[in-house]
Amino acid sequence: MGKSISEALIEKSLFLTALLSCFIILVILCFIFIEGFPAIHEYGVVKFLFGNVWAPNDGEFGVFSMIVGSLCVTVFALIISVPLSILCATFMAEVANTKVRNFLKPVIQTLSGIPSVVYGFFGLIILVPFVRLHFGGTGFSILTAAIILSVMILPTIISVSYDSLRAVPQEYREASLGLGATSWQTIRNVTIPAALPGIITAIILGMGRAVGETLAVIMVVGNVAKVPDSIFAPARTLTSNIALEMSYATGIHYNALFATAVILFILIMILLVIAKYIQRKYSIDAAGGTL
Amino acid sequence: MKRNRIIASIIFIVIIIGGMLSLGFGGPERIDIVGSTSVQPVAEKLAEEYGINHSDVKINVQGGGSSLGIKTAHEGIADIGMSSKELDDSNKQDLKEYEIGRDGIVLVVNANNNVSDLTKDQLKGIFSGKITSWKDVGGSDNKINVVVREAGSGTLDAFEGIVMGDAKIKSDAIVQSSTEAVKQSVKQDENAIGFVSFAHMSNDVNAIKVGGISPTIETIADGSYELQRPFLFLVKGEPTGELKEFIEWTNGAEAQKILESEKIIKLDE
């Protein structure tokens, strides 16, 4: 009797903790939507989403340039970071011996321990002049931000893909090698495809961090609220827009910043759905015997 | 056993939080200071120093911008409003102004830039995008890279008010979120120009003379350097009690020392 009561109690409290995190997310969401709604309502959804002018002092709140800015910075960061990190994870999981692995792991984890303001400062002092010198413009650009972000998301993608590569059953490799495949053929045709769902999860996590990163991006992206015409042009991301102006904003400007957060939230949701779709498609391939 | 311990710790936490809340509501008298983010750090320093000898008063300093400072002071929400721009007659209303000092806006360029003197009109041209090359203002044949502050910043506000007038700052100017970031941007780019508050000026960037007058404590104090703004405390009606005491204290020797170390300049009488 006493046992079943304590069982039930534990079950209920576990359920409650699960409920609590959902509840917290819901509260935050409600808050963002309630605060952001007046701006979208007053300014007009279409004008807000596709308006090109962001001039809070003149009552203009078009965030289109920032949606483009956020997407560009994220996509270019992924283009740089994904091949690098997957190859690095493959090396660590499949090729390197224990000694090298034990050296590489903490080094890469250190990367994720560096505060973003340090990345930003490094970018401002070293990368911005470098980009200006070699590619022209002011040096504050999508490319600069993408390079900084790609370094910042490296550890996330590497460590999660590393784990999923290690989780591939040893039998798969043995079977492949036993059939006469070389080590590289095994990695390319067996191990990586089998670990693909995990690798895609890693990319999703990295992407999430890239979209959400604020401080480092603010320092190197230039924050110009204009649709960029090249990757060497400055841009403004959704997150940097919120962080830049939040400390002063009042009235409708304040609401417009929350509305920016709503857009950011929806953008991340869309990216997640796309990524989930890709993940499901490939995971069926991997488990369906096409190995 | 374990459960008892958990319950005990929960009760403990509740008591602590409850205690903190009740202390927050009761306790010492509060002075709320709200307004300009440029004045805010100075006001925080003053409040901190004042708190050392006046434990019966709790001073709460918040940003929000000059307009918010004027508004909340007028509505009586804040005891003191901070403004870093002159009040015009329409928003003076029933507010009493106390100038705690003045701050200069300094135009900065890279140390390797040979331009050292610009007029207000030239500045207006550069920041509005009409002048795009350093050649047009006596420098090298390079594009001018303009660095400004984010919308809502007190420094940007003051710069727009004093220099730009009705003209708009060009839309492709690089936006940086702090004085330090502006300085760093100028430091690493020979063709950049930006503006910072006089209090945050340092030697790693060059200050530009405006109309032949370089920004120094003397030229700001005697008013000959044009790009300057007041730091104002605004109080609705006649201050009384603790509030009066605090405001009088900001005029005293102790407070002046703090203002001096913050490079806030007292206007010549």
Overview of the structural elements:
The complex is a heterodimer of chains A (291) and B (269). With 291 residues, chain A is mainly alpha-helical. Chain A has a two-stranded antiparallel sheet with strand order 1-2. In chain A, helix 3 packs antiparallel against helix 8, helix 5 crosses helix 6 and helix 5 runs parallel beside helix 9. The longest helix of chain A has 42 residues. The C terminus of chain A is likely disordered. With 269 residues, chain B is α/β, with parallel strands linked by helices. In chain B, strands 1, 2, 3, 4, 6, 7, 8, 9 and 11 form a nine-stranded mixed β-sheet that branches. In chain B, strands 5-10 form a two-stranded parallel sheet. In chain B, strand 6, helix 6 and strand 7 form a beta-alpha-beta unit. Chain B is globular and about 75 Å long. At the A-B interface, helix 5 and helix 10 of A face strand 7 and helix 7 of B.
Nutshell version of this structure?
Chain A has 291 residues and is an all-alpha fold.
Task: Pick out its properties.
heterodimer, A: 291 residues, mainly alpha, two-stranded antiparallel sheet, 11 helices, 1% strand, globular, disordered C terminus, B: 269 residues, alpha/beta, nine-stranded mixed beta sheet, two-stranded parallel sheet, 11 strands
The largest pleated sheet of chain B is described as: 9 strands, mixed
How large is the share of residues in beta strands of chain B?
15-25%
Report the helical percentage of chain B: 25-40%
Element order of chain B: H for helix, E for strand: HEHEHEHEEHEHEHEEEHEHH
Strand order of the largest sheet of chain A: 1-2
The tally of beta strands of chain B, per DSSP, is 11
Structural class of chain A: mainly alpha
Gyration radius of chain B (Cα, Å) is 23 Å
User: Major sheet of chain A, described briefly?
Assistant: 2 strands, antiparallel
User: H/E order of the elements of chain A?
Assistant: HHEEHHHHHHHHH
Parts with pLDDT < 50 across at least 5 consecutive residues of chain A: 286-291
Q: What is the number of beta strands of chain A? A: 2
Distance between the termini of chain A: 52 Å
Report the largest inter-chain contact. A-B, 29 and 24 residues
End-to-end distance of chain B: 74 Å
On the 0-100 scale, what is the average pLDDT of chain B?
85
- CA radius of gyration of chain A is 23 Å
* Structure annotation, total helices of chain A: 11
